[in-house]
Amino acid sequence: MPAVTVDSILDLPRVQSPALDQLPRPVRSVTTAPSGFEGEGFPVRRAFAGVDLADLDPFIHMDQMGEVEYAPGEPKGTPWHPHRGFETVTYILDGTFVHQDSHGGGGVIKDGDTQWMTAGSGLLHIEAPPEELVVSGGLFHGVQLWVNLPSHLKMAQPRYQDIRGGEVGLLASHDGGALIRVIAGEVAGHAGPGTTHTPIALAHATVAPGARLSLPWRKDFNALVYVLAGSGHVGADRRPIRMGQLVTLGAGDLIEVTAAESQESRSPSLELFILGGAPIREPVAAYGPFVMNTRAELVKAFEDFQAGRLGVMPENPHTFLPRDNQPGHQVL
């Protein structure tokens, strides 16, 4: 980590210096993600645990996957499983993950790539390390985010976006002390490659020791900051933050974060996953792999899955054509 970087950050477009009348968003809460296991047993931190869904809207769930150094034979993934009613966004900082779904999407993502899957009306999918990583072991670190869909898009046609690390928008903070990778939406006037059903913005920022990031943020979006690695302070009152903590912010003009002068040796900078969006403000009925609006819709999702209406496993799992020639594959 970081997965995507540049030789000279000073050559990048700059975020404008904050105006005197722009106010940092105040800190509403800082929570620490508990550790657990997902799928066949890979370690995760549950980033949103203990936070009210109303403060997260339009997001539903987020896991920090790893950071873990696997020994040979240890890498694990998830078995085939269904989804309906939302989108999954998987961002890989280190390591390699293979994805395949029953709608024809899939591919290999690694080192700064993002896989964006709109489950919509429903599909089956699997995520797993490639065979060579299972054999060799190695470093693995990523984030998986669930983005809700409004009721009129719950049954949208599934789609898949394959976002290469080299496609993300890159910009520097006003003083060159932070590198911002814009994955989706627009940040400080710079757009990321991800196409979103729900208006959101996603970014990964690396803040050098002692540097401050003042990032303009849309007033109609909520704002969340998750610490992937390192330590620092957030907000005008300089609340301390460290790896594995989620910050929810109140209303204002800027997200303001400062990296601590001294960072741990394995993470020389403060690494942040910054996200926000326009709240959907609809009822949420979520259980297991489905995110709907009502209990009746959840029951229908389970019935459709059990009846095979969400798709079937491909005949040749984990067999991929070149990324631009996959059947049903869409790069949007």
Summarize, please.
InterPro entries: Pirin (IPR012093), Pirin_C_dom (IPR008778), Pirin_N_dom (IPR003829), RmlC-like_jellyroll (IPR014710), RmlC_Cupin_sf (IPR011051). The protein has 332 residues and is mainly beta.
In CATH terms, the superfamily is Jelly Rolls
Q: In terms of per-residue confidence, which ranges show pLDDT below 50 for 5 or more consecutive residues?
A: 319-332
Q: How many individual β-strands?
A: 26
Query: How would you state the average pLDDT, rounded?
Result: 89
Q: What is the helical fraction, as a range of percent?
A: under 10%
CATH topology: Jelly Rolls
CATH architecture: Sandwich
| Domain tally | 1
Cα-atom radius of gyration? 19 Å
Global geometry? globular
What's the order of the H and E elements?
A: EEEHEEEEEEEHEEEEEEEEEEEEEEEEH
N-to-C terminal Cα separation, in Å? 26 Å
Strand order of the largest sheet: 1-22-19-24-17-14-13
SS class: mainly beta
Question: What's the CATH C level?
Answer: Mainly Beta
Major beta sheet, specifics? 7 strands, antiparallel
Proportion of residues in β-strands: 35-45%
- The helix count comes to 3
Family: Belongs to the pirin family.
Domain Pirin C-terminal: 203-310
Protein name: Putative chromosome condensation protein
GO molecular function: metal ion binding
